[in-house]
Design goal:
Layout (H helix, E strand, L loop, with lengths): L8 E3 L15 E5 L6 E6 L3 H20 L2 H17 L1 H12 L3 H19 L16 E9 L2 E5 L5 H14 L3 E5 L6 H12 L7 E3 L4 H9 L5 E5 L2 H13 L3 E5 L5 E4 L5 H13 L11 E5 L3 H12 L20 H17 L2 E4 L17 E4 L6 H4 L6 E7 L2 H9 L6 E5 L3 H10 L4 E4 L18 E2 L4 H8 E9 L16
Parallel strand pairs: 1-3, 5-6, 5-8, 6-7, 8-9, 10-11, 10-15, 11-14, 13-14, 15-16
Antiparallel strand pairs: 2-3, 4-18, 9-17, 12-13
């Protein structure tokens, strides 16, 4: 367990380029899930705080767009450098605040810096086009920012979530009001400060801390032009309803129950390693976690034994320790949710092949759950259908491609799918038939800010990456100008004379 101890600090919302005393006097605690330590008392912002943030964001956005593109690009590049330089501090903040193991949290800072640089390169590419429609006329479209974007964040990868949403929003010329998750709000405050220090107008990116009430105030605010949300399906639905009232654009990246489909002709060693990392990384708190392993019957015994052997070597413990593979769950709420699914699995008749415990003896104050592999799972069981968001892998067996497709698609979600086979014909057939917004073949969780990433079915709409991020952050307008006086004008020709 970490020996690091802290005196809880008071964290204020970041509004107008600095921490500001909030209107609301309510607070909530930021807690280290590895040891129960209280890290901070964080302001629980109300609708007045959100309104203040939207107001300063509007003014900052106008200033931002009055700057030449080169000056805006320079700010983004300085911000990227700062995120990279501060990645140790940012990573430690996330590790303490939500239990992500430090060795991975450090990687988030470096990946986020690359992401910001990608978006810096897009700043002067928010172009429209010219349409040769009518002779004697020039018609063109412009792409312009929505104004203020509301960013409502989850808790499972705070640094990456902040940068992947804020960078495209501001690269497209917007300001942002960010509502981090109440379970991991701390790094967002630091990231907004780093952007200010990099030279952004005061108020370009503001952080209002709080829970669902604060988030709802963001989704409802008429001064916000678009919302990008990552989180659960029920909350995504609420946000879509709230946003519709004022016709906000929305990008919704919601839950998943991603299949990881392994055929007998696959590289079984790579597929086995991938299966474990894909579901147990970040203690399973990953939207695209491959939580359903669909394995072909002919190789099932051998493959499952490989999983059992390797899963036993996963080191669970202090997330600050560089040797640890898996830290605790992020919050008491999540710990109870996952513990409940362990009970449901047993009640439904699944077999616990490995794990299945919540090691309170070795980790009395921590919210740890063992990496758990469930076999003898059938498609009707809740553990095979519902998003758990914890380190639980459900193994199902199939005979042929048709059955694999049927099992893969028989859930409400459609975020991502992983397919392992050496047969490229089969790979492409499966990629066409499996219902998921992202298909990974012989790999998993490979991302790039220039590649579309979004869910279908209940897993959401739009993409917070690539062209989806631009679409979600901008609107298009059309201009038509008659420049040739010989070109006709639409008018009544018989209004003159007697
Ligand atoms: N797919 C993903 O990446 C994620 C999925 N989840 C799923 O959701 C489950 C519950 O986790 P939560 O953090 O409670 O998810 P959530 O979807 O309720 O919360 C996500 C964010 O939305 C905010 N929020 C809550 N109610 C809101 C409302 N009415 N209007 C606007 N914003 C609101 C929260 O404060 C937080 O910032 C998890 O167990 C997991 O299954 C959670 C986080 C990320
Ligand atoms: N926001 C998508 C990141 C998913 C992943 O951690 O792979």
């Amino acid at each position: 367990m970490s020996t690091h101890s802290v005196t809880p600090v008071r964290e204020l919302p970041f509004i107008g380029g600095a921490p500001r005393e909030p209107h609301s006097s309510a607070t909530f605690e930021a807690v280290n899930p590895a040891n129960g330590e209280i890290l901070a008392h964080v302001a629980d912002c109300d609708a007045v705080d959100v309104d203040r943030a939207v107001s300063v964001a509007g003014a900052a956005q106008r200033e931002w767009m009055s700057w030449d593109a080169g000056r805006r690009i320079a700010v983004l590049l300085r911000w990227a450098d700062a995120v990279e330089q501060q990645r140790a501090e940012l990573g430690e903040t996330d590790t303490r605040n939500m239990g992500r193991v430090l060795r991975e949290a450090l990687g988030d800072g470096a990946a986020s810096a690359r992401m910001i640089r990608y978006w810096a390169g897009q700043v002067d590419r928010m172009t429209g086009h010219q349409v040769p429609a009518n002779s004697g006329h020039l018609s063109y479209t412009t792409r312009e920012p929505l104004g203020v974007i509301g960013v409502i964040m989850p808790w499972n990868g705070p640094v990456g979530s902040f940068c992947s949403r804020v960078a495209p929003a501001i690269a497209c010329g917007n300001a942002a009001v960010v509502k981090p998750s109440e379970m991991s709000p701390l790094s967002a405050l630091r990231l907004a400060a780093l952007l200010s220090e990099a030279g952004a107008p005061e108020g370009l990116v503001n952080v209002v801390t709080g829970g669902g009430v604060t988030g709802a105030a963001v989704a409802e605010h008429p001064g916000i032009g678009g919302v990008t949300f990552t989180g659960s399906v029920p909350t995504g639905r609420r946000i879509a309803h709230a946003a519709a009232e004022t016709f906000k654009k929305t990008v919704l990246e919601l839950g998943g129950k991603s299949p990881n489909i392994v055929f007998e002709d696959a590289d079984l060693d790579a597929a086995g390693r991938g299966a474990l990392w894909g579901v147990f990384n970040n203690a399973g708190q990953v939207c695209v976690a491959g939580t359903r392993l669909l394995v072909q019957r002919s190789i099932a015994p051998e493959f499952i034994e490989q999983l059992r052997r390797r899963a036993a070597r996963i080191r669970v413990g202090d997330p600050m320790d560089p040797k640890t593979h898996m830290g605790p769950l992020a919050s008491q709420q999540q710990f109870e949710r996952v513990s409940n699914y362990l009970r449901i699995a047993r009640d439904e008749g699944a077999r616990v092949l490995s794990g299945g415990g919540t090691p309170k003896d070795t980790h009395p104050e921590g919210l740890f759950v063992e990496p758990t592999v469930l076999t003898e799972v059938s498609q009707s069981m809740r553990v095979a259908r519902e998003e758990i968001f914890g380190p639980i892998l459900s193994v199902l067996v199939f005979d042929d491609e048709d059955e694999a497709v049927a099992l893969a698609n028989d859930v409400e979600y459609g975020l991502s799918a992983n397919i392992w086979t050496r047969d490229l014909g089969r790979m492409h057939r499966m990629a066409g038939l499996v219902q998921a917004g992202t298909i990974w073949g012989n790999t998993m969780r490979l991302h790039h800010p220039g590649l579309w990433f979004g869910g279908i079915k209940a897993s959401g709409q739009g993409s917070a990456y690539a062209e989806g991020a631009i679409e979600g952050s901008t609107r298009v307008r059309r201009v038509t100008i008659r420049f040739d006086e010989a070109a006709p004008t639409p008018a009544w020709g018989d209004l003159d004379g007697d």
